[in-house]
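Homework-ish question, so no full write-ups if that breaks the rules, but can someone show me the predicted structure for this set?
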Amino acid sequence: MNIRIGIVGYGNLARGVEASVQLQPDMELVGVFSRRQGIETVSGVPTYSMEDIPNFKGKIDVMVLCGGSATDLIEQTPMVTKYFNCIDSFDTHARIPEHFANVDKVAKEAKTATLISCGWDPGMFSLQRVYAEAILPKGKSYTFWGRGVSQGHSDAIRRLEGVVDARQYTVPKEQYLEEIRNGQTPDVDGYKGHLRECYVVAAPDADKAKIENEIKTMENYFVGYETVVNFISQEELDRDHKGIPHGGFVLRSGESTDGTRHVIEYSLKLDSNPEFTGSALVAYARGIYRLAKHGGTGCYTVFDIPPAWISTQSAADLRAHSL
Amino acid sequence: MNIRIGIVGYGNLARGVEASVQLQPDMELVGVFSRRQGIETVSGVPTYSMEDIPNFKGKIDVMVLCGGSATDLIEQTPMVTKYFNCIDSFDTHARIPEHFANVDKVAKEAKTATLISCGWDPGMFSLQRVYAEAILPKGKSYTFWGRGVSQGHSDAIRRLEGVVDARQYTVPKEQYLEEIRNGQTPDVDGYKGHLRECYVVAAPDADKAKIENEIKTMENYFVGYETVVNFISQEELDRDHKGIPHGGFVLRSGESTDGTRHVIEYSLKLDSNPEFTGSALVAYARGIYRLAKHGGTGCYTVFDIPPAWISTQSAADLRAHSL
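A: Not a homework solution, just the prediction itself:
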């Protein structure tokens, strides 16, 4: 029997999940649950209201929660975990312990299993950090993000007076990547390691110097970073900056004996951040489904799932073809 | 209590395991078991004969088997699994199903747990293939090895008449790596994708043209590959080619919707192949130890181990610091 998937929310991430489910031979999409009414889904799968969720008990195996971390998931994941095994992409790092505790409590009472904070970071990048650090305990780890669109930073620029539209790219500085690949362990943090590249459409009468200054001095967003502001036309922005690509690098440079160095590098180059995140959520929907079948209840992360459980292949096929 | 480790065999890989155990805060090395007598270990840990192995029952938690796949592991892993949880680096791909079945039978009878085929390929590369394929089911996977020393190919050259010493490097062809990173899916196999670079010390009176021809026409080793033969002096070989570096790349290029492409890349750049392989074995010794503590018996691979189990960090620490 196929794994029956439900989707909660219907933004970019949800459409990524919807597309990914179509590519999986052992899954079927039962429905999309949304606060908005009258949505047409890309695949034609039916939509329901959030209030219908409890009525699908026994008809859906895993609910994929596609809301935002800040306001949606912190409430929705525990709520839906009352009825279903779930998976979410909760990425507000400082609140992960709190979110984990909330979900774990509900899941243990309801005897469901929910996996939180899946995607690529947190998610695949987290896995790479754990693997690399376990193998090379003596060493230094690095994470770089980009080149990719930061939605939050783009939104922050758009809120400035005189700004019509904007797109912000986070760009890792190649010099540090090269140093690490060559076995060096530079002292570089997120600020030093990234360039913030802004493309801004200004209103015709706007004071561009003022906008540029406001961007560069914006606390929590741009202060501390090297920031480059480019003013372009709306046509240029629509033509050249419509996609939502992203990616990044996880590296660990370590040594096994004095002077014997090893560099582990993992990188992603993604045409679409939400589609790749959705694809990771769907693979791990299979993982949490199997964990639940094995009797697991409570809250989990990617660290708890044996890799074999996210694959469609049997254990014997994995050993024969992928080992 | 520390995880008590034993090592079977005492070649390069065993010394890599020995060094790695020293870096792990939760492990101690109890002894090295070898067919040879009177060995001095690097760390000063005592050595014992192979016949002593059964006497250490209850004193060692995991035995790390460091023999060669072809003749040693195929017999030793089932033998030692009778008494201990074990881990090996069995890498004769075609015989993995047979080796798995042998070990599984012994382990289930003895109620031990043994993990086979650990290291980087098989091992970390295998994991990357499984993760990437589960997330991007529509796509193409690639594995490249090198730049690194192939011991088997170096040995094969050394056996030729007129050859005093030799070192063979496997080198991935950069052009294909670049194509894949740019989202293309070239039709490239192991033969087309690698260059075989040979450094040969010939005897003073040897026929170099004949040696070069014999290398390039050697079945199962060089036929089908682009092969370059360089004749050098013993001094040059000793000076420039004494290390045993290795590494490689696992890539997957796939799409989530038509034309939306993603590239996942994992790479290793290793100063010492046996030291890194040994480091992976030691991290997974922790994994199989925990699996055994959870009641697991039988034969396992890296695919079966939750990533959290190879880490020294608690689940809460992993969520707080690595997720």
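Now go work out the reasoning yourself. Hint: The domain at 124-271 of chain A is CATH 3.30.360.10 (Dihydrodipicolinate Reductase; domain 2).
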